[in-house]
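new request in #modeling-help
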Amino acid sequence: MADWQVIEGGVTAPRGYQGAGIAAGLKPSQELDLALIFSETEAIAAGVFTTSKVRAACVDYCRQRLQAKRSARAILCNAGQANAATGEQGWQDALSSAQLLGNSLNIPPDTILLASTGVIGKSIPMDRLGKAIPQLTGALTPDGSDAAAKAILTTDLVPKSIALETIIDNRPVRMGGIAKGSGMIHPNMATMLAFITCDAAVSTSLWQEMLTEAVGHSFNQVTIDGDTSTNDTVIALANGQSRTKAITTLEKDGEKLAAMLVSLCQYLAKAIARDGEGATCLIEVQVSGAPDQKAARQVARTIAGSSLVKAAIFGRDPNWGRIAAAAGRAGVPFHQDQLRIQLGDFLLMENGQPLPFGREGASNYLKLAAAGAYLQEDTVLISVCIGNGAGTGVAWGCDLSYDYVKINAEYTT
Amino acid sequence: MADWQVIEGGVTAPRGYQGAGIAAGLKPSQELDLALIFSETEAIAAGVFTTSKVRAACVDYCRQRLQAKRSARAILCNAGQANAATGEQGWQDALSSAQLLGNSLNIPPDTILLASTGVIGKSIPMDRLGKAIPQLTGALTPDGSDAAAKAILTTDLVPKSIALETIIDNRPVRMGGIAKGSGMIHPNMATMLAFITCDAAVSTSLWQEMLTEAVGHSFNQVTIDGDTSTNDTVIALANGQSRTKAITTLEKDGEKLAAMLVSLCQYLAKAIARDGEGATCLIEVQVSGAPDQKAARQVARTIAGSSLVKAAIFGRDPNWGRIAAAAGRAGVPFHQDQLRIQLGDFLLMENGQPLPFGREGASNYLKLAAAGAYLQEDTVLISVCIGNGAGTGVAWGCDLSYDYVKINAEYTT
């Protein structure tokens, strides 16, 4: 079982971090819109970024910075403007943002990482940012995680935050994370962002390896509407302030730290799915029997991303036919006569055929009603077995509601 | 320009075909639900089927039949039950359906092709089918295309039918097609089906080659919700009754016939997109500048399939940011500073940057209003150029509306 516990404090739970979130006037709503995470000492830094060919300036900036030097002191994030499709000016604005913050914190600009979320094609109002930076750095506190978690949101309904603690070398080692999503993973006001802090001592390359692996098992398995943002960013810092000896391999303590990072990322990923635009529930899809993990994850993601499955769940309809069809088109070979589908505890299909659980008959009606009742829960578990393979995988999504259409049809104009 | 004209008559426009559509009591609604297309002489037959690993019995049946013998006399299609996920019984029902029709028409069962559309996991009520077959064959007439076109529908709002005529060897050569889609391409009550008849004389392998190519440029470029059905089927017959000499290569007459087939399939594909569940408009996405055709089609399909683009169009919002983001995640490499996006006649983005067409300012407001007005049209054209390549491609879709969610949330229960 998990060898760690949940603690308070978000990204400022690990030693040596401070956080801040302020209203800088970047969002028309006057809500919090500028976040800062600060490490009191140099931290090693890892990042995973959008694979889109259309990328925000901050993404190009971070990738370049991390290629040159895998460490950082601070993460600055603005909400309201994506600074994507803003050309040379966007790049200059990114550089200026780092310079402004560096001056205020008295640290080199190249120790600052950047993230933006908001409307594509909108530049950051640099005059407002410039005026806000001193206020932002002045607001840094060791319990500033909540303010930062709020300041990175856009259409999200709730902040997403978690912190975990384990024991390594008889000393507490902590990890914290905040995230935003919503129309996930979507290009306008709902980029997927996650910022993770940790006070473990870990080697640079191992930390990047752990983060890439954890993202594959978490954020990359979340689908709200299948759209990838120009700004998707996950950044993880580790500053060694737990004062344990350095972790350099995936054995023992390394394995524990990696597993804790996966758990933390999965918590945030599920929180993003549950808070998807218009969502009324979280959908978790567990796939087993696949040739390998990759294939299992692919099938899980296809089911979780199917508009028809999502609409059926919104309608509280135990529609195994749509689940079977989504599995069938996932691009993973299997024999349909081995397909098994379960909704919560209800076995709906076995050996590729529906169980006597139709839409007629008294006892069938009772079962259908019970399955429909299960769908009233705020978490819906779909389990699918596609064969005899050892590959398993999980994906998360949310249902497709009228409100999703409303939010996305009426957003910009 | 096109070397053919539109004529009346659908699938019975070509010489030597009859059609019928009756209400066999398969749909609870008592609407037409059983269709027959009959060729008075043996016709060569080509087919393209769903790539899903979960396939209906009729799909397995047709693939086996066409592998054994590339000719047919009739296509039987029922609406109401998909006969998918019905196991051995489903397979036996398919065989029995062909046997029943063969007896009634006095033709060998292996000259009959089958298609089904409806609820997955539902078997065809064979007693009702058996009683209806004599009535169906008795209803065959040389102008029965409209009845057949209606009988293959499920949640579609309108029948989809077209016929074209050209001149080859100084003789008229005709081609007709009917189709259904709707929640396209989707597993419950909205499989994509198309049946095509032709009176050209053409070699068997060339006809299959022409059909595969035409499907790639038409039906495979339509996306309503990204879901592939267990039952997707396109069947094309050619019976040689035009009495022209046989076409055996893609030169001259062969090229003309192939182009006419693409045009016919594109007409039906667009009709399917326009009638997508809950759709208020047709979206056509034209992509140019890609490395090759395949890449261009991929980008076009990704944009046409983006839930965010679709919701924006439903909201009449000229949201180029979502179009750019969808292009960026299509898996085709390009430089974002070469991206150009046009909506109808409105140039929204050039060299990867939005034109002065923002959300503030008087003249911008006028342009925005004009673009919004353009989006009131019932066909919306999105043109995207991603670079200097020669590859072009088109895809079609429809907007994402409240009604899509309503139809799919409330369908089975």
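bot summary: The longest strand of chain A covers residues 34-49.
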